[in-house]
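Researcher: Good morning. I'm working through a list of sequences from a screen, and I'd like to move beyond sequence-only analysis. For each chain I'm collecting a predicted structure so we can compare shapes side by side. This is the next one on the list. No need for commentary yet; just the structure.
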Amino acid sequence: MGSDYSSAASRLIDILAEIGEVIPDDAVWIEHYGRFSSYGFPDDEGYILIPLHRGVDGVSDDIREHRELPPQEAIEILEGLPTSTVEEDVVKVGLEGIKYW
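Model: Good morning. Structure tokens for this chain:
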């Protein structure tokens, strides 16, 4: 939805590497969007699967490979993985009380 997924993924991978976490090479980005994520989005929630490609220059993605995920498929991919809401993550990093949208 107009975001720079590969730059965000590169930065996340760098941060996790600093604390000794390794992201598998076949990792994908799943964008979860809806009214909660930005002003002007539709009321319906949706998911986009974004394959990530790693190279010597970092992470890249190809918009031609992005695809909408049916909600059930997104749930199946995420099943068993640790997930949290934006609100929970904001509290974890100490930014509660800050308006972030």
